[in-house]
Amino acid sequence: MLIFLRLFSRLPLPLAHALGVLLGLLALLRRRHRALLRDNLKLTGLYSPRILLRAGVELGKGLMELPLVWLAPLPRVFTLIREVRGWEHIEAASAQGHGLALLVPHLGCWEIGGIYLSYRVPVTALYTPPPQEWVHEMMRYGRERAGAKTVPPTAGGVRALLGKLKAGEATFILPDQSANRGEGLWIRFLGHPAYMPSLPYRLITSTHAVPLILFAERLSWGRGFRLHIEPLPDVEDNTVATLARVANQAISALIRAHPGQYLWSYRLFRQQGDTPPPDDLA
Question: Is residue 216 within 8 Å of 117, Cβ to Cβ?
């Protein structure tokens, strides 16, 4: 399988994305898949037939670009990044010796954003291996070959992230995930209650790291990607709950600006057993 994917990684990005469009359209023919995307879009007030179609197509593009992003030579991968907006925020934090907590939502091509970042600054990220060995091999190679380090989502892994942030390095965190029971907090995400991980914000408050949002926008017609690096708005009380609320508002705004590029197939809004969201959720 890896041999086939390495051959596939040689395709030009426009062709890979064209195949992704076909894959996305075929996937939308599956009633269950289409219903999942539609239901999540409706929960957030973003549903329209056009956005549903775009979300399915962009999901297909995202899958078909991964072999190129993970397996193609790094110089070729970096040529796909056409513009970087906001790198000055990373330079400013680094110059002051602050750690960087990169909050990277499932929006656009977050994998290429992580590879680019880890090539330029020391980065450590949590990593849970997938069950398929060949997928694990490809993901691990793709994510670490530019210099990133990965640690398991255990107490030891969290301690490693704390140490890296205190040393002025960067962490790569996917914040828009469904947290395990007891490991998160309820927050309004895209206007709907979601049980989100509190770890990113506990790391920030414990280390005084600078939180930044990283988004790799997928450009049309296979032209490449545009990286956006944005700071969070200033907050008066630097608490976990406040940081989580402000970060998710900022991430929600990005998703509303680029709704087709979000990973709507993820079951982010699932109920957490017998732990419903509070009635007074802000």
Answer: no
pTM across the whole model: 0.93
Q: Give the chain's end-to-end CA distance (angstroms, integer).
A: 47
- How do residues 124-180 score in pLDDT, each as one tens digit? 998 888 888 888 888 888 889 999 999 988 899 999 999 999 999 999 999 998 888
Other beta carbons less than 10 A from residue 182's beta carbon: 8
Two tokens, residue 1 = 């399988």
CA distance 94 to 209: 10
Dump pLDDT digits (tens) for 109-119: 999 999 999 99
CA 84 from centroid of its chain's CA atoms:
17
Evaluate whether residue 266 is within a structural domain.
no
In-domain check, residue 174: yes
C-beta neighbour count of 67 within 10 angstroms: 21
User: Contact 277/193 with Cβ under 8 angstroms?
Assistant: yes
Q: Which residues pair with 213 in a beta bridge?
A: 103, 230
Distance CA 51, CA 37 (A): 10
Report if residue 198 sits inside a domain: yes
Structure tokens at 133: 């060995």
Give the structural domain span for 150: 2-261
User: Cα–Cα distances in Å, from 230 out to 203, 216, 225?
Assistant: 19, 12, 16
Q: How many domains does the chain have?
A: 1
Domain contains 276: no
Tens-digit pLDDT profile for residues 65-83: 999 999 999 999 999 999 9
For residue range 202-212, what is the model confidence (pLDDT) as tens digits? 999 999 999 99
